[in-house]
Amino acid sequence: MILRAEGLRKFYGKFCALDGVSLAVGAGEFVSIIGPNGAGKSTLINVLTGVLRPSAGTVRLNDRDITGIGPVRLARLGMARSFQLVQIFPDLTVMETLQAAVVSRLGRGTRLFASLARDRAVEDGALEVAELFRLADKRHTLSRQLPQGDKKLLDVASAFALRPEIILLDEPTSGVSTADKTVIMEILVSAGRRIGLKAIIQVEHDMDIVFGYSDRIIALHQGRVLADATPAEIQADAHVVDTVIGRKTARPAGSR
Amino acid sequence: MIQHVVSVLMSGIFHASILFLVSAGLQVVFGVQKIFNLACGSFYALGAYVGVSAVQAYAAAGGPPAFFIVPLVLGGLLIGIVGVVVERGLLRFVYDRDETFQLLLTFALVLMLEDAIRLTWGTSPLSTGGMYLVYGQVRILGAAVPVYNLIVIAASLAIAVGIGALLTRTAFGRIIRAAAGNREMAEALGVDMRRLYAVVFTLGTALGTIGGALVIPATAAMSEMGIELIVEAFAVVVIGGLGSMRGAFVGALVVGVLRAVAISVYPEVEMLLIYLIVIAVLVLRPRGLFGAAATAT
Amino acid sequence: MTGRLGLAVAVAAVAAVPSVAPTYHVLLMLPFMAYGVVLLGLNLLFGYTGLVSFGHALFIGIGAYTGAFLTSNFGVRSLEAIVLTAALLGAVVAAPVGTLCVRYVKIYFGMLTLAFGMVFYTFVLKFYRLTGGDEGTPYLRPSLLGFGLEGIPKTDYLTGPYYYYSLVVLVLAAAVMWRIVRSPFGLCLKTIRDNPAKAETLGIGVGRYRWYAFMISAVYASVGGALLGAPIGNVDPTLVYWTHSGNIVFMTLLGGFASFFGPILGAFVFIYLEDFLKSLVPSYWRLIFGALLAAIVIFAPGGLMGLVRRAGALRA
Description:
The complex is a heterotrimer of chains A (256), B (297) and C (316). Chain A contains nine helices and ten strands. Chain A is an alpha/beta fold. Chain A has a single domain, classed as P-loop containing nucleotide triphosphate hydrolases (Rossmann fold). Chain A has a six-stranded mixed β-sheet with strand order 6-7-8-3-9-10, sandwiched between helices. Chain A is globular, with a radius of gyration of 18 Å. Chain A starts with a strand and ends in an 11-residue tail after the last helix. The relative contact order of chain A is 0.17. Chain B has a single domain, classed as ABC transporter involved in vitamin B12 uptake, BtuC. Chain B is 70% helix and 3% strand. Chain B is built from twelve helices and two strands, in the order H-H-H-H-H-E-E-H-H-H-H-H-H-H. In chain B, strands 1-2 form a two-stranded antiparallel sheet. In chain B, helix 2 crosses helix 9, helix 4 packs across helix 9 and helix 10 packs across helix 11. The longest helix of chain B has 32 residues. In chain C, 76% of the residues lie in helices and 1% in strands. Chain C has 15 helices and two strands. In chain C, strands 1-2 form a two-stranded antiparallel sheet. The two termini of chain C are 18 Å apart. Classes of the chains: A alpha/beta (256), B mainly alpha (297), C mainly alpha (316). Chains A and C meet through helix 2, helix 3 and helix 5 of A and helix 8, helix 9, helix 10 and helix 11 of C.
């Protein structure tokens, strides 16, 4: 098991956002977290990525307690994330964004007098990710001038540039046209394979994507895990289908 | 001994009364428009100079000294209209910009007003002389306190109460509080932000100019008074909490009295002590005594 | 490369000034160069890290007072010693001040830095036995590279050896800052400026890097302060007043905070414009300056360099 969460509880005053959530993700798994709005998905992601301290429970990464350690230390430990609302560095180019991630990964952030432009390792690392995400030809474009779909890709790409073991994607295809969604997913999966990513967790609303790519689906409802099973099993679970998915969107378990 | 304490205390409270007025102006603008107006001290100075001129003109026209406070206050109040000019003519262009740029614009205003004042009134200090003594003095526990100071303290208190009533009991006050709490929501509910901003900024300016006018009989109008006061007003709103009227009231008392005490006991320390408190507040409780949560990383 | 050529021409032009320009203008170049150093540091904080300090006059003051104390009270006249001590003291003060300040952003950062600046101002003003109060402390003529140069009249010293010394310091400071800005460290600063939350998820510790930037900018300001004080000959508290901090931010904005050389250009234009206006309209030069700052903020927030870029883009 790469990531293991146990008994996560999070209270905002009296409101309970997470009520005893436990999950485990192992090597080679693609896990989707689904659930209606308000189910606690964002809170869960923030707790899993150490941004939020849970009121109770632990999160372990490769058996190391990472509960609430914060995003900075987490990034060094091999877990990366992307955001639901696209997060970019508006005044940096694509290349600079990816270089920043590689600089951080290689621990070269405190090199004050070295030339960034002449750093081969950083340059190559950034270029590699740019190519995997089909952004290489736009690599000198300012991030804020990219079309929305590319901004999304860049956001995810910068997380990948950290060469994490496990990555959490918060709605990787939200705000993107249907045609682009599949493209993004394909790029994601193949890039993951290339950089040695061991597991992917995503929060997704688009059921086609969810059923098309997941090994396992975790359905969240009102802060609790309603179901944690394979797509086929989820399909068969009428309760989950009613509560979370809705009959109309439910699809037969697809192949990848 | 007790006489000395009372004297120091009264001096501190007098200063606090003036500080409250200027800080209240700062707070109402910050609360609604989220702009920290560095020029509030300049408006204070403007009110002071206008006040002097008004009183001097009044005296030259033969007005009875007993009523000198009327032209003083009127002058201070009327010059507050400058707020409309500044808001419509300058400030409104930067509402959509980063706070840093808004702050820099108010700094530009400080520079402009400094010279505008210098051009109009010259560089030597102006005062109304001993005019305020026409109201005489009273003895409080042995200390001689000018009645004028008591009038100012009372006026400031009245204004504080008035502002409180305005904010909590009138429709306009409710609009101000709504806009301060959540601008988008207020707009969505149909509040005309343009007009509100103009009114609020003018109110803030007028509070500053009145404060300046009222202080005049006790001190002279001097060219640096504006840029010196802003540092005190700044301390007041940090201690009291940015955007809070209650904060301006309590903060002004704290700063005013502490300063008076420090001056009488250990003059070197004066503002140093107050600044150390400001830093302590910013570090330990950034939102001050009554403010909303601070923006921290 | 036109950039490098232009730079070489600029440096050569500055170096040529003492030979061709009247003394008055040569002397004006001295504060320009000192402020140039200060602003290189300030802009690392402002343009590259996104933090606006309203208290940087504190560090200018530290540098200037270091020079004054060392020359007047300790008999140390070596400018090298003064600059190094100033840099060291700047760092020593910036360490705790920075630790406190970088935890806050935007207006709270501005307010905290302003408060620290005013604490130092009040300190140097009130403790007159130590600092000379509002009269200040004399900053005696420093020796350059071991040469006392006592024999030379003051003006010749300032327009000659001291001028070139300052120029070398400015060029060195710029060269170092250029490397810093183009380093992996510089890139990390830019990520923090653009999106601190995202920078953190990439493993970049926002607080830590801001602190480094603060430290570096403080050291630069102190060195600039040490250079600034010598020609004046006397260091007094007005150097530390909050309006002085406001002015250096103004200079940065004037030249353009989004460019490396913008602030230096801003220092140059500010110094010359201030001098020009003071002599032309002594009674309302501040009014014009205020109007200029207002115009920049409203119409040209990118400063002069921003306008140049816009003009270039239009032509292309």
